[in-house]
Amino acid sequence: MTLGEKKTFYLGDLNQDTYIDEDDYSILANYCSDPIKYPLTEYQMKLADLNQDGNVDNADLACLRAFLDSEPEQQIDGSYICTNLAEAGGTGIQTASTIELLDGFTVKLYILRTEEYENDDEEYEEAYINMIETDLKEYKILPLDIKIDLHGIGKYYWSIEGKFVTKQPLSRNDLQDIIVNINIILRHYYSRSKVNFNELPDYREVISDILSVDNRILMVDLEPFKYEDEDGNEVSKEEITGKYSQIVPMLENEDPLQNLHYTIELEQGQILPRFYCY
After folding, report:
1. Of 17, 55, 70, 252, which has the fewest CB atoms closer than 10 Å, so is most exposed?
2. d(Cα 265, Cα 210) in Å, to the nearest integer?
3. Both 87 and 110 in a single domain?
4. Do 163 and 210 fall within a single domain?
């Protein structure tokens, strides 16, 4: 599979606005003065290596200054005519690609079926698969070999239990109405169509949603969220969302881009809401 459209910018165009000017010089000057305070993206680092020596430093800043001082003329194709090319390096002449084309990658598209499409009939599922393939092929930006698996994604559910305290004593009917309204609002905000893949519920958001139901609610006390598979077996959240780790090797690296490393492993699928309150 090959995915993506290759687009290029000329070296020196750090803000990628198709012009090389003083704005780009300011960006590079800031980086050279304090790369931690004014970091560049990985792609900007490619555009900033004007002398193509593998480093981004004051030598590249000097190339950009020499380029601007020569009052270069921009051509129709975006390149420049520079009278001081010997001192300007590859500024305005050489290009860098914005993206690399992906070869041999597998792209997984998760298509969430609504309950009306849940059906175990093989003939019905074949028609559903054909519908998906037809719809995806209409998006000409997806040059993919499509393989659809309707049963390979496990579904997991999160449940909440908790208590709420009212500002004053209320009748049983009033309390029952509040509980009903809490479930209505939670089903509204956390319905299947609004749940993202690999996304855990946020305690603060859930509590805020419950508090918004009735101004007579003083506080909400939630138990830890529980996660279950389709058969009702309790599972850990790591089993659903995978693992996330942050590694800080050192704070004073010579290369500031190496100060922080993040590792994320996401392996499983969607968490669907199933909730109840008392």
Report:
1. 252
2. 32
3. no
4. yes
129 shares a domain with 62? no
**Residues 54-73: tens digit of each pLDDT:** 899 999 999 999 898 888 88
Q: Which two tokens stand for residue 170?
A: 């209320």
Please indicate, yes or no, if residue 61 is contained in any of the structural domains: yes
Measuring CA to CA, which residue among 20, 21, 1 is closest to residue 9?
20
Q: Supply 138's token pair.
A: 């209409």
Within this chain, do residues 184 and 134 fall inside the same structural domain, yes or no?
no
Range of the domain at 75: 2-97
User: pLDDT, tens digit, for every residue of 177-217?
Assistant: 999 999 898 888 877 666 665 566 778 888 999 999 999 99
178 and 265 co-located in one domain: yes
Name the strand (E) or helix (H) holding 193: none
* C-alpha triplet 216, 222, 228: angle, nearest 5°: 135
Pick from 151, 183, 213: which residue ends a domain? Answer: 151
Contact 140, 3 (CB under 8 A): no
Grouped pLDDT means (10 residues each) for the chain, 278 residues: 61 87 93 90 88 91 90 80 78 75 63 62 78 72 66 75 91 93 86 64 86 93 84 82 59 65 56 50
Nearest Cα neighbor of 35 from 257, 276, 265 is 257
Q: Which helix (H) or strand (E) holds 234?
A: strand 234-235
Q: Does residue 57 lie in a domain region?
A: yes
Q: What are phi and psi of 45, to 5 degrees?
A: -60, -35
pTM score, two decimals?
0.42
Q: CA 128, CA 141: separation in Å to the nearest integer?
A: 22
- How far is residue 64 from each of residues 54, 78, 81, 84, 194, measured CA to CA in Å? 16, 17, 14, 11, 48
